[in-house]
Amino acid sequence: MKYSFKRLQKWAILGIFVALVFSCKSTSVIKSGTVDENLTAKAVIRNHYYSHFNFKTLSGKMRIDYSDGESTQSVSVSFRMEKDKAIWLSAPLGIVKAYITPDRVSFYNKLDNEYFDGNFSYLSQLLGTDLNFQKVQNLLLGEPLFDLRDEKYMVDIANNNYQLKPKKAGDLFKTLFQIEPLNYRMATQQLSQPWEKRLLEINYKTYQKVNKWVLPGEIDILAVDGDNTNNIKVEFRNMEFNRALNFPYNIPNGFKEIVLN
């Protein structure tokens, strides 16, 4: 069975991309800070990487609102994550499940008796940049998709954030990053291919503090490919750090495999 590119976008973004975001219990919303106009781009980047945190697992629930301009969906899902190793997502009653590792992207849908089991190649094609588990995880933790220490950037002030643009424009796509001034977490990430009419924009609307960690509170994702536009809003609820978790996942017998064009 072959899927249209538009239908693939819905599954890829809704079923996998937003499966990776999270938050925590006992949280407080972080207020905005004030920029220091004297900071260099190098200092802003250094301060961002000082804010890194380590954990073993995350688990909880999230609410996802999705729209493609023609239809709208809202769903609450259960979420489990072992950092750098595995992501697990389950809709109520296990109707839809997803399991993602650094080498594998897999999900199944009991409503249609269908499944997909493959890699990140179609997500890379969909969003116009080379993606892997680590990059997607970084993006959804409020960290940059690319390591900012690998390039030289110019810094400006925009929307009360530090805005970073590469000194040397990329040949394949353009990038822009904004970092908020209080905790030096990402405020906006934007990757675009104007000549291909492709855009991926991630806006971190709020952050929250859980114990010593600063995590995204709400994220808006915009994905544009030609005439197709997808909007995703994610609200994070009741997450916990470092619980012992398992990741039950087995594709049911008799399901039809989703074959991508």
From TrEMBL:
InterPro entries per record: DUF4292 (IPR025634), LolA/LolB/LppX (IPR029046)
Top-level taxon of the source organism: Bacteria
One family name in Pfam for this protein: DUF4292
Alphabetical keyword list: Hydrolase, Signal
Keyword RNA-binding attributed: no
UniProt-recorded Gene Ontology molecular function terms: hydrolase activity
UniProt name for this protein: Deoxyuridine 5'-triphosphate nucleotidohydrolase
Species assigned in the record: Arenibacter algicola
